[in-house]
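Recall from the previous lesson that a structure prediction takes nothing but the amino acid sequence as input. Here we apply that procedure to FkbM family methyltransferase from Candidatus Marimicrobium litorale. The sequence below is the only information supplied.
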Amino acid sequence: MQNIIPGDSEPDYPFLFRIARTFYALLSGYRGEFFLYSLLGKLNQLERAGRFQYFSGVIYIPLRVPETLYIQDFSLFQGLREVHFAHQINQQFDEFVLLDCGGYFGQVSMRIAALCPGLRKTLLFDPNAENCVYSTANLELTGHPFSVINAAVSDFSGGATLIFPEGPHVPDSAYIEKTEDGDIPVVRLDDVEVQHNENLKGKNLAIKLDVEGQELAAVIGGQNLIKQAGGVCYFMELHPGVLKRTGQTAEALLQSVSKIRPTDWYLADQPELKLDPARPIFPQIGQERICDVIGVAS
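The prediction returns the following tokens.
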């Protein structure tokens, strides 16, 4: 895992990768468009990060993520959802700690750092060790205090197996399965203060949950911390496919979280739409689709 982050004097990505991008652009939509990119992967030439534009700065994304082949500006992947989350945080808190559960490469953490002057520290959790290398490099760019914790977040402490349903080159869809011999560490948010020497009790918390089916388990595993917090804002992904895999419904998930601490829920990309967890959620937003919700706990 050495020398995978380009230095300031190094190009954004290697010469051969530039050729692969040009090759893809010329053949886009035709047979063979991925040939050179796939060849570089087989030759282990993609095991490093590229430096891409991200809003007013840059972000490091591993070249083996397929989107790097045709996207130059990764801020195009982000809509207004993080802006609305940041707005809600700024309305509620003068200062806060961000718990980024399922941090991936740190994209959301970077946006909150840029948009929220009250951020005092970020704790980013991710079960994928490679993701943690890139998220560490990205959070260093923010200039804010942070800790990257290589662990999944759930309602137990122990080990699990990390499942890649779409392959290891698509890490954002990976999820954990609890196993006796699992080599992926799992933590409860309630244990973070002791295990990682963090002072969180009584502080305002912004909790982002994108943990591929462990959302409710993560909240249950942090219910004491959540109950004792000064205030809580949630940012949670609702994924129809993941809900079906785990046997949950969106409304049952929001109801269960609200039982720990009463919470008002809003659609992240349409924050004027207040959601009623007592009724099916997807009909309220007009369609069954992947979406994010913002929760404000009283």
